[in-house]
Amino acid sequence: MMAAALHLVEASAAHASVLAALHGAGFEDGWSADSLAATIATPGSYGFIALDRGEPLGFVLMRVIADESEVITVTVRPQARRQGVARALMDAALARAAELGATTAFLEVADDNAGAIRLYRMLGFTETGRRPGYYARKTGVRADALTMAMTLS
Ligand SMILES: CC(C)(COP(=O)(O)OP(=O)(O)OC[C@H]1O[C@@H](n2cnc3c(N)ncnc32)[C@H](O)[C@@H]1OP(=O)(O)O)[C@@H](O)C(=O)NCCC(=O)NCCS
């Protein structure tokens, strides 16, 4: 099901504090507004925020360098999940990457993040590798990173 009035806007450094609040709700080690603003300001970086009647539901950040693109982060507010918001954000981000000349997209994801892995597979990503113990959890447990890639058309 798609959220009722989903609307995507281009993310800019001016949105950094909104992005930091969303990121902190999605990840144990949320990024600060300053680091998000610096990331958006990096050459080749861009992002989209999903809004429902003005309320931010999630965002994606991407980077394109020559013919390669990378998903930097994607997150959706817990209350707005399983409504197609991440899918809409990823579709827009991957379409933009192709427009900018990227022919491949890469990402990394914790191997215990089954929901995200399912989303990425649905979009066309396949697993290309594994980085053992890449993510440190607050519990002290470490999770492997899977690297995934897809060809953009
Ligand atoms: C992963 C995340 C971004 C997905 O956002 P979302 O808006 O709920 O995803 P969508 O509704 O667009 O999901 C599209 C499809 O992906 C799959 N999917 C997404 N989340 C899932 C979950 N928790 N469990 C199983 N499948 C899931 C499903 O196939 C889903 O389609 P369906 O709902 O029709 O079954 C969200 O759970 C999140 O923000 N998690 C915390 C941050 C994070 O882990 N980001 C990714 C790190 S690499």
Report on the structure:
29% of the residues lie in helices and 40% in strands. With 153 residues, the chain is α+β, with helices and mostly antiparallel strands. The protein has a single domain, classed as Gcn5-related N-acetyltransferase (GNAT) (Aminopeptidase), CATH 3.40.630.30. Helix 1 (16-26) crosses helix 2. It starts with 5 loop residues before the first strand and ends with a strand. The mean pLDDT is 95. Residues 26-27, 74-76, 81-87, 109, 113-116, 118-119, 122 line the site of coenzyme A (COA).
Characteristics of this structure?
single chain; alpha+beta; 7-stranded mixed β-sheet; binds coenzyme A
Topology overview:
Layout lengths: L5 E5 L5 H11 L6 H9 L3 E8 L2 E11 L2 E9 L8 H15 L4 E7 L3 H10 L2 E11 L5 E10 L2
Parallel strand pairs: 4-5
Antiparallel strand pairs: 1-2, 2-3, 3-4, 5-7, 6-7
Helix pairs in contact: 1-2
Coenzyme A binds next to strand 4, helix 3 and helix 4.
